[in-house]
Design brief:
With 180 residues, the chain is of the alpha/beta class. The chain is built from seven helices and six strands. A six-stranded parallel sheet has the order 3-2-1-4-5-6, sandwiched between helices. α6 links the parallel β5 (139-143) and β6.
Amino acid sequence: MKLIILDRDGVINQDSDAFIKSPDEWLPIPGSLEAIARLNHAGYRVVVATNQSGIGRGLFDLETLNLIHKKMYRMVQEVGGLIDAVFFCPDVDEANPYRKPNPGMLLDIGRRLKCSLNGSPVVGDSVRDIRAARAASAKPLLVRTGKGARTLADQSESCANVPIFDDLAAVADYLITQSD
């Protein structure tokens, strides 16, 4: 089984420093939904791992998060793709082992899917995604979308030896070409 784990905000959809708090605010990054479909067609199972501290901050509730994800699932399906599962951490506390940059959420994905994360691509736009991937023995990939360009500019040392891509579509191109 080929597995790819994607961060949500800034990788699949437009990010906001004010949080994505409603389905109306959830807007896909151009090409990201099609990239998920192409990854599926190349044999990848796509799973999302996302911190959602807006719940813990009281900015939105679990029902709203479910509506946001329902929209995401539907839009991915409309272009022929499938997201197998969404894992999220609603906590604000950085000590929570499931909140990225801690690896708990990623390790839970591996346990539940009964697969090793060793070398599996984890696509993110921040240092916390890179650190979580490394701690889970996965392969971090950074996109410039979302907070990615800022991450590269402000924390380039944390991005050492991490492949960098313009967006999720470029990641899909790379991975599909590598598996051919």
